[in-house]
Amino acid sequence: MIDKIVSSAADAVADIPSGASLAVGGFGLCGIPSVLIQAVFDAGVDNLSVVSNNCGVDEWGLGILLFAKRISRMTSSYVGENKEFARQYLAGELELELTPQGTLAERLRAGGSGIAAFFTATGVGTQISEGGLPWRYDSDGSVAVASPPKEVRSFAGRDYVLEQAITTDFGLVHARVADRHGNLVFHESARNFNPLCAMAGRITIAEVEEVVEAGDIDPDAIHLPGVFVQRVVPVPDEQKRIERRTVRPRAGA
Question: Domain 9-115+166-234's class?
Fold first, then answer.
């Protein structure tokens, strides 16, 4: 078996070129591969096409690449709390393919499973299927690039739209535990888009908080088999950021 441990994040991402496509795990700021994202930023690559549920927040997570204008295209389901994301999109500085969240998840899973496309009822009768969603604006606010119409087919009397699978040059994910062969375990809700992005990447790099020896993980506890992972980078268990802190009023206050 191949030992997939790489000593540093910088070494792990060293062959990611400008113009590459990346599938990046995480949901909001939960389970994002922040160390790998920082390493990509430090490497200076740009013109990246990124597939991720959202784009972090201003200047954190994918937001650091976005703020530096290193991302030219996003495929996402949520603009979220990132004001710079919305600004660049509306100003025509960023191309954005908005995709329903479940459809995005299935497109990534299908790509990793060797399925070229699939039919789903989500989006039928909307611009998702009919086309015309603004992908890129001109600086004057007009639509420069719009989504194309998609094939719609009826099954058992219900219409479904054809969605193409997603594969990317690289996948970047965060896991709680890995063994030296790349088998991964994710911590609770960090098991969100991470397994799917790992599957979709032709070369997948996993940053992990703990590395154990082969055989130390119960096979039934493995969330993603190592066949989908090419590189494993041990990272410190850093303090997790909270996207938006909310608290309840204290009783009797």
Answer: alpha beta
